[in-house]
Amino acid sequence: MVIEKNKSMREKVYDSLKEMIIDGIIQPGERIIETEYSNKFQISRTPIREAIRMLELEGLVESLSTGGVIVKIFTKEEISEIYKIRIALEGIILEEIIKKGTSQDIKKLEKVLKNTKKAFELKNIEKVFSLFTEFNQTLYEIADLPKVTAMINNINLYLKRFRKISIDNAERKKEAFKDHLEILEAIKRKDLPFAINLNRVHLEKSMNFILSKYSI
After folding, report:
1. What is the value of pTM for the model shown?
2. Residue 75, SS3?
């Protein structure tokens, strides 16, 4: 693998390592050895070291007391806490949408759900997963709260590898789609308490499914 040099080397390495961690190419508990990735990316060890520091600040890797760095292994308690934070932040998003959402915004959400239904019918699972993400991102765009969205996106970095466990389950996919439909209906009715409760239950179902499959 060769890293392109048209961007800051540290940023390029950071992006590549982060993607490998989130996609599960580098597994939780696996050591990140500077010399190994220096050879793999065909660059010096300095940008590797700098990128690792950035990943450590984000909580994706951690230093061992004995030396070296590993991909962080999340406990069940930490996963639960991450979900609780997302539930709270998305409550703020829903409040803002119900306060200022337009008919055009509703149409955008309806289009995403229509495409999701079509992807289900075609059994295009990767597309379904992508459209679930698009539905959430459309909600964040409508709310137009950049700082809240940035916090949610940061939280979602930790959840991405866990969400695939949940979404890969056929029943969970159908359930999640049904939840999105109901959340949209609550938004249309401007029923904030119901929308927040639906979203909380939706995320708790995902969390509980993941925790039931998680061995840490």
Report:
1. 0.82
2. coil
